[in-house]
From TrEMBL:
SUPFAM superfamilies the UniProt entry points to: WD40 repeat-like (SSF50978)
Stored SMART domains: WD40
TM ranges: none
Annotated spans, Disordered: 364-446
Composition bias, Acidic residues: 364-379
UniProt-recorded name of the protein: WD repeat domain phosphoinositide-interacting protein 1
The family this protein is said to belong to: Belongs to the WD repeat PROPPIN family.
Organism: Pagothenia borchgrevinki
Localization terms from the record: Preautophagosomal structure membrane
Lineage of source species: Eukaryota, Metazoa, Chordata, Craniata, Vertebrata
Length: 446
């Protein structure tokens, strides 16, 4: 996510210059930000404060930074070495391993089972427990942005990436069993965004036109939902994200509007039970659509946004995510203006979301907006923060030995570094005790 300067936001120019990229972790409890000087990790388990867990300065100009859940494992790629992926244990300040590739790294995705590296015309799949290269997908369709999605659910580890450079075809790949599952004909135009729900049973997609967002079942590839973002103009969809329960889907773009769609099936019985004017008009449109051209009929069956957010900027790239923070549903928007915006979402009525907090990512000050978080009515104490996941990996109490980690490559793919510390994952999964340590946490050198 590259920043773009906007004349509408002169006050944030310094933050825009420092900001290079941003990503939420797999359960939306942490925000990772790549900067000119390195990277920063933030905890987003509370509304009224944004704690900086760690600031890494191992390498400058970080354009990819991905954290594995709430663990200490973080993957970093720098503009100074765009073909090299570094995997760090950020709390100990040590490098777990590094890999170099034949071309620039465009994106990295990871869950507790797999780490996926996407290049323009190839995809590399690593076993995250020992970082060995398991599979190289060569000669994939040209993918200039490194678009891909990996399901958070490591029991299936589904991987989605473009199956064509000219149309919106999706290849769904089983990264556990290393085999192709299905091809989905999702859009007429090339793909722009992909996202799995947390269980890996649904896949959302958008094309470069950005007017229609579709949701498919996985692995069947059946279309489940179709949402219309807009009709007047084409936009660039920058992110798609499901809520944890897969009841909602949010989409952000290069416009000032973030859309939230509700995934619900409309049954005829519901319309009969509530004979409202809208239900009556819905029946009329449904009947009329059978006599109209297919393109017009499809538009009449597309659902509109359930809730929206109006951002105070235009033309800046951003990412969005839905999360439950302090027992309430929230929409998080991290923007290249150097700010994190937190909105309340009404899960019943939807409508315009209310901005409750704005955090600056590059200074200690923060700005309270609209309203203050209410205290727990029972005991007067603030609501507890959502408990984050702990990565199912083990970290030895004794310092690891320095050995060369040997992966293998298919036809000259990834290459390991010369000397790589022994990987710190144990054979049996043991919970990483990160929740008791942050925020904040300082580095510890071996």
């Amino acid at each position: 996510m590259e920043p773009q300067e906007s004349q509408d936001a002169p006050d944030g120019l310094e933050e825009q210059r420092a900001f290079i990229c941003a990503s939420f972790n797999q359960d939306t409890t942490s925000l990772s930000v790549g900067t000119k000087t390195g990277y920063r990790l933030f905890s987003v388990t509370a509304v009224d404060k944004l704690d900086c867990i760690h600031e890494g300065v191992e390498c400058p100009d970080v354009y990819i930074v991905e954290r594995l859940f709430s663990s200490s494992l973080v993957v970093v790629v720098s503009l100074s070495m765009p073909r090299r992926m570094n995997v760090y244990h950020f709390k100990k300040g040590t490098e777990i391993c590094n890999y170099s590739y034949s071309n620039d790294i465009l994106s990295v995705r990871l869950n507790r089972q797999r780490l996926v590296v996407c290049l323009e015309e190839s995809v590399y799949i690593h076993n995250i427990k020992d970082m060995k290269l398991l599979k190289t997908l060569l000669n994939t369709p040209t993918n200039l942005t490194g678009l891909c999605a990996l399901s958070v659910n490591h029991s299936n580890s589904y991987l989605a990436y473009p199956g064509s450079a000219t149309i919106g075809e999706i290849t769904v790949y089983d990264a556990n069993n290393l085999s192709t599952l299905t091809l989905i004909q999702a859009h007429d135009s090339p793909l722009a965004a992909l996202a799995f729900n947390s269980s890996g049973t649904k896949l959302a997609s958008a094309s470069e036109k950005g007017t229609v967002i579709r949701v498919f079942s996985v692995p069947e590839g059946q279309r489940l939902f179709e949402f219309r973002r807009g009709m007047k103009r084409y936009v660039s969809i920058s992110s798609l994200s499901f809520s944890a329960d897969a009841q909602f889907l949010c989409a952000s773009s290069n416009t000032e509007t973030v859309h939230i769609f509700k995934l619900e099936q409309h049954s005829p019985s519901q319309d009969e039970e509530s004979p409202t004017w809208s239900a009556y008009m819905g029946k009329m449109f449904s009947a009329a659509s059978t006599y109209l051209p297919s393109q017009v009929s499809d538009m009449m069956h597309q659902d509109r946004a359930f809730a929206t957010v109006r951002l105070n900027m235009f033309g800046l790239k951003n990412i969005c995510a839905l999360a439950t923070i302090q027992k309430l549903p929230r929409l998080l928007v991290a923007s290249s203006d150097g700010c994190l915006y937190i909105y309340n979402v009404d899960p019943q009525d939807g409508g315009e979301c209310v901005l409750v907090q704005k955090h600056r990512l590059f200074e200690s000050g923060e700005e309270q907006v609209e309203e203050k978080e209410e205290e727990d009515p029972e005991d007067g104490s603030p609501p507890p923060t959502s408990q984050s996941y702990a990565a199912t990996v083990a970290l030895p109490s004794t310092p690891p030995s320095s050995t060369t980690l040997m992966g293998y490559s298919e036809e000259g793919g990834a290459q390991t570094g010369d000397v790589i510390p022994e990987h710190e994952f144990a054979e049996s999964p043991v919970c990483l005790d990160d929740e008791n340590e942050f925020p904040p946490v300082g580095n510890q050198s071996n």
